[in-house]
Amino acid sequence: MNKKKNQKINIKRIKRIRRIKKSIITMVLLGVVLGLMAYIPINIKKKALIARDVVASEKFKDDINVLGTFNRLREDNKSIYASDEVSIKINSEIEEILEELKNGVTDKVKELVDNLNSLLVDVSAGNHSELEQLFNKLNEDKMTGFTQEEVKKVNTLMDEYNLLIKEQKYSEAKVDLEDINTYVKEVKKIVETRITKEEYDKKSTEDEKSRKATYINGILLVNKKNGLPDSFGDAEDPKAREAFEEMKKAAGKDGLYINAFSTYRSFWTQNRLYWNYVASFGQEPTDTFSARAGFSEHQTGLGFDVGGADRSLWANQEFQYTAEAEWLKNNCYKYGFILRYPEGKEWKTGFVYESWHFRYLGEEHSKNFNNNNLTLEEYLGV
Ligand SMILES: [Zn+2]
């Protein structure tokens, strides 16, 4: 009996356990379903948010690139040079971009930055080719007579230039190139002075009897490189005198008195004059204002030293400030004369500025010298 009772109780318990198991499974399944129902929409939403972030960050990257390009272009603009017209165009494009940027990095900004970019690329390319042309021209220039030190300085400047070109710093490269140009020009003048001095020393110590006068295109040339034999010339040139008298008359009409106080000088007069100066001033200073015998234009009879009413200013540096000197400078060419030793051309003529020394050339040639500081050497291409 007891055994039967126990069996009954066991069956009941098993049934209960089965019920409990069933309800647990049902609850778990229900939980899973509910979980999935909640998870799926959240996940979809999250994915959508991520996708939106990706788009936004791509746009952000794009905008940063545009701004970066714009800043780089503004920097590049400092490294180039352009005509006023182009500079104005570049600056107004930059202003326009800055204005448009107030609305953010719009499509218009992108378009404007692209335009600016192509404009600057064009200008840079133009700078590059122009500078290279100038540089090549300068490089072809022969630096004959330059000292080692002078050549070294040119090379240093050229190295600097090459570095700047490499870095695309065109405006700085241009300045450097201009420096080289100026320096080479200056040294050339020094070289010319040096060569002239050497030739002068050589030629003036040669036998004056065997020297021959130099004519270029029919024009007699006397300077430190071209002397005259001692026998050359005996008086002032009559044509030159006639022209001077006409010039004197014209000056008179303008209320100015002019006088030719020294014209023809013989080889021996010049010799005495020169050595007297040397005794007073020394040879080197004398060589800047007085010619050695056989190298004076006065021996040709074509050189006229002209002064005004004030005798104290004859052959005086102060003469250049007088009304007579001004008149002569502006009008001499009309009468066949040229100012033979112009200001700033000492390196070419070998003599200091002489506002009083005029050379008769004839109107046919003198008209080409209309107050332009041209020297006879330059006119004759020597
Ligand atoms: Zn003179």
From TrEMBL:
Q: Does the keyword Cytoplasm apply?
A: no
Keyword Protease: yes or no?
Answer: yes
**InterPro entries (alphabetical):** DD-CPase-like, VanY-like_core_dom, VanY/YodJ_core_dom, Zn_M74/Hedgehog-like
* Biological processes, Gene Ontology terms: proteolysis
At the top level, the lineage of the source is: Bacteria
| SUPFAM superfamilies, per database record | Hedgehog/DD-peptidase
Q: What sections of the sequence does the record tag as coiled-coil?
A: none
Can you tell me where the transmembrane regions are? 20-42
What range(s) does the D-alanyl-D-alanine carboxypeptidase-like core domain occupy? 238-362
Q: Which keywords does UniProt give here?
A: Carboxypeptidase, Hydrolase, Membrane, Protease, Transmembrane, Transmembrane helix
Write out the GO MF terms.
Answer: carboxypeptidase activity
Entries under Gene3D superfamilies matching the protein? 3.30.1380.10
The record, for PANTHER family, names: D-ALANYL-D-ALANINE CARBOXYPEPTIDASE, PEPTIDOGLYCAN L-ALANYL-D-GLUTAMATE ENDOPEPTIDASE CWLK
Name the UniProt record assigns to this protein: D-alanyl-D-alanine carboxypeptidase
